[in-house]
Amino acid sequence: MKLTKFGHACVRLEKSDSALVIDPGSFSEESALDGARAVLITHEHFDHVEPERLRRAAEADPSLEIWTCEGVATALAGVPAEIHVVRDGDAFDAAGFRVKAVGEWHAPNHPDQPIVQNVGFMVDDEVFYPGDALTPPGVEVPTLLAPTNAPWLKGSELIAYLREVRPARAFSTHDGLLNEIGLGIVDRWLALESEKQQADMRRLKPGESVTLL
């Protein structure tokens, strides 16, 4: 399996000439969807989903399928793709990948904003993407895609999450709001935790890929 980081919170997984994209929002490159057979979307915030972009992708490939929570499915009503609503505990096949839905809610954010639905995804028992939440997956996680910066996230919470999950590998997501100074802090904290846990924890730059399995 090949994992490629795109801007902010978007990743692309590829194996056997098939591609699956997670959270292609407005801060990520549109090329992430090129040739993708399926899309997973964790929640409705614009940095994770862009309906117009998905409409264009579905018009280019009518076989495109999307798996997401009910709130996002409602917002995508005008997208001509097959849209599947999934909930915590559901398991399904998408583009040749075996996926399990994990979690229900976004982390608490601004006190005047409602907490929206948020579903994380475990892909092929290898990659866990929690979306905008620090959801305990309840199983061993070889590769964790960990949010490292957000209005709802403290650095201490990130470290506590890494120590709770204890993945073999962890790569930064949700880092598109940071300048070079902030990215440097993320790099340092992940390096320190990598050394402590004897695991591969780091930030991939947009366009950078790693091979898993």
In short:
It holds the Pfam family Lactamase_B_3. This is MBL fold metallo-hydrolase. The protein is an alpha/beta fold and 213 residues long.
Protein architecture, described:
The chain is of the alpha/beta class and 213 residues long. The protein is built from four helices and 14 strands. The strands form two sheets. It has a seven-stranded mixed sheet. Strands 7-8-9-10-11-12-13 form a seven-stranded mixed sheet. The termini are close together. The relative contact order is 0.15.
Average residue-wise pLDDT? 97
Spell out the helices and strands N to C.
EEEEHEHEEEEEEHEHEE
Number of helices: 4
| SS strand fraction | 25-35%
Helix content: 10-25%
Can you tell me the overall shape? Answer: globular
Which strands sit side by side, in order, in the main sheet? 6-5-4-3-2-1-14
Q: Quickly give the structural class.
A: alpha/beta
From the alpha carbons, calculate the radius of gyration and give it in angstroms: 16 Å
Q: Sketch the major β-sheet.
A: 7 strands, mixed
SS elements, strand count: 14
Termini, distance in Å?
6 Å
Pfam families: Lactamase_B_3
Protein name: MBL fold metallo-hydrolase
Domain Metallo-beta-lactamase: 7-174
Write out key terms for the chains shown.
single chain, 213 residues, alpha/beta, seven-stranded mixed β-sheet, 21% helix, globular
